[in-house]
Write a structure and sequence with these properties.
With 401 residues, the protein is α+β, with helices and mostly antiparallel strands. The protein contains nine helices and 16 strands.
Length: 401
C-alpha cells in the first residue's frame, strides 16, 4: 500500500479518534438553517410539522401538537444521517489501489461535502385523557438525549484545504398541551435546555493536517465535560377550522426560542452562538378513508428571517429567502396503529424547493415495539436559494411502545 493511501486513511482514522476523544469542532455553515432534533418523519414530509404533529417531534416543531397523541408513547430512537457524498467517498476509497496518485485522491475528494448526524434520545408522551371525551385535560411530553453532527469539506485544488467540524448537543425538552374552547383550539408550551459544543469554521491545509499529530491545534477544540448551557421556551397553538371539518383542516403557529437561546459563555467567548426567536406558521389537512390515512401540510418557517445561521436573509429579505423557509409534505398511511403511526406509510414533500421522500414500517403490524423509518431530503448550506444543496439520507430505528 502506498504512503499516500496510508496518509489518506490516517486522516479519516484521526477524525474518528477526535470524536471518541472529545476533541469537538463545528463547520460553520452560513446559510443552512440548522435546527436540533429534526424528526425523520418530518424530513420525509418536506420537514413540515407546525400544524401536523402526533408524536414526540411536536416538542421541537409545535408543542400544541402533543394533543394529537391518543395513547401513551415511550420511545428510544437511534437515528443516523449521512450525505450522498459520504457514501460515494467511502465506496471510492475502497476501490483505491496501492498505486493511487495524488491526482487520484484530489479528484476523489475535491468539492465533496461529508456530513454525518447521529441522534439518540429517550422520549415519553402521556395523555391524561382523550380530549374528545375530557376536553380540559393535559398531555405531557418529555425528550432528552444527544445529537452529534460531523462535517468535512475539501476544496482548492491548487493548495488543498480542509474544513472540518463537529457539533455536540445534549438536550432535554419538557412540554405540555391542552385543548380549549371545546377542542377548537389546541395550545402548548415547553421548556428546552441545550448544552452545546460549538466552534466556528476552522480551515487547514492538507499538509498541516498530515504533519500535525495534535489536530486540535489545527481545527480548535472544546471540552466535552464543559458544554455551554442555555435554556429557552417554546409556545404554540393549533386551530381546528370548523368550516373545513370534512378535511380536518388545522392552522397552527409556533414561537420557538422565546427569549432567545442564550449560552453561558465567558466574556471573551463568542461561541456557541445564541439563537433568536423563530416564528413559524403552517396549515394541514387530515382526511381519512377507511384503512388509509392521508396527511397534507405546508409550513412557512422563521417568518421574521432572524435565524442566527442565516446572515444573508437578515439583511436581504428577498423572494429567495421565502423559498428557503417553505416546506410542503404529504403522507399516506396504511392500517393506522394510533394517531401517530401506521403499519406502513409513504411520505413525500418539498424542502426549500427540493423533493423529499421516505417511508415508515412497523413490522409487528399493530404495535410500536419496533419501528423503522427512512427519509431522503436535500437542504441548502449556502446563503441564497440554489446555493450548495446537500442531499442526505436518514435511517432511524425506534424501540418502544
Amino acid at each position: 500500500m502506498s504512503c499516500l493511501r496510508y496518509h489518506i486513511r490516517y486522516l479519516f482514522v484521526s477524525v474518528i479518534l477526535l470524536c471518541l476523544g472529545g476533541i469537538l469542532t463545528l463547520q460553520a455553515q452560513a446559510g443552512e438553517l440548522r435546527r436540533p432534533v429534526q424528526g425523520i418523519r418530518n424530513l420525509g414530509m418536506g420537514n413540515t410539522g407546525i400544524a401536523l404533529s402526533f408524536d414526540e417531534n411536536a416538542l421541537f416543531y409545535n408543542p400544541a401538537g402533543l394533543v394529537g397523541v391518543d395513547t401513551i408513547l415511550v420511545g428510544f430512537p437511534i437515528l443516523n444521517e449521512v450525505s450522498d457524498d459520504s457514501v460515494k467517498i467511502v465506496n471510492d476509497i475502497s476501490k483505491l489501489s496501492g498505486s493511487s496518485t495524488t491526482a487520484d485522491v484530489v479528484a476523489l475528494l475535491m468539492g465533496k461535502r461529508v456530513h454525518f448526524r447521529n441522534l439518540i434520545d429517550l422520549n415519553v408522551i402521556i395523555p391524561l385523557g382523550l380530549e374528545q371525551q375530557f376536553g380540559d385535560l393535559l398531555t405531557f411530553g418529555a425528550a432528552g438525549g444527544y445529537e452529534t453532527q460531523f462535517d468535512l469539506g475539501v476544496r482548492n485544488p491548487v493548495s488543498i484545504e480542509i474544513d472540518f467540524g463537529l457539533r455536540l448537543d445534549r438536550f432535554s425538552n419538557f412540554g405540555f398541551a391542552m385543548p380549549v374552547a371545546r377542542g377548537r383550539w389546541l395550545v402548548g408550551a415547553g421548556v428546552e435546555t441545550v448544552e452545546r459544543c460549538d466552534i466556528p469554521l476552522k480551515t487547514a491545509t492538507f499538509g498541516e493536517v498530515m504533519t500535525n499529530t495534535n489536530l486540535s491545534s489545527s481545527f480548535g477544540s472544546c471540552d466535552i465535560n464543559s458544554l455551554k448551557r442555555a435554556q429557552t421556551f417554546n409556545f404554540g397553538f393549533q386551530r381546528r377550522l370548523e368550516t373545513a371539518s370534512a378535511l380536518k383542516m388545522i392552522w397552527g403557529m409556533s414561537a420557538y426560542n422565546v427569549g432567545g437561546l442564550k449560552f453561558n459563555r465567558s466574556d471573551n467567548e463568542t461561541n456557541p452562538s445564541d439563537q433568536n426567536l423563530e416564528l413559524s406558521t403552517g396549515l394541514s389537512w387530515q382526511p381519512s378513508w377507511g384503512p388509509v390515512r392521508m396527511l397534507y401540510a405546508i409550513d412557512l418557517r422563521d417568518l421574521t428571517m432572524k435565524h442566527a445561521d442565516d446572515t444573508y436573509c437578515q439583511s436581504n429579505k428577498g423572494t429567495d429567502c421565502i423559498w428557503k423557509r417553505l416546506h410542503i409534505g404529504t403522507e399516506f398511511g396504511f392500517f393506522p396503529i394510533d394517531s401517530g403511526a401506521s403499519t406502513f406509510a409513504i411520505r413525500a414533500g418539498f424542502n426549500q424547493g427540493y423533493f423529499t421522500y421516505g417511508f415508515e414500517l412497523n413490522p409487528f403490524i399493530f404495535f410500536r415495539v419496533f419501528n423503522i423509518q427512512f427519509a431522503v431530503y436535500k437542504t441548502e448550506t449556502g446563503d441564497k436559494i440554489g446555493d450548495r444543496p446537500d442531499k442526505r439520507r436518514v435511517l432511524q430505528f425506534n424501540l418502544g411502545f
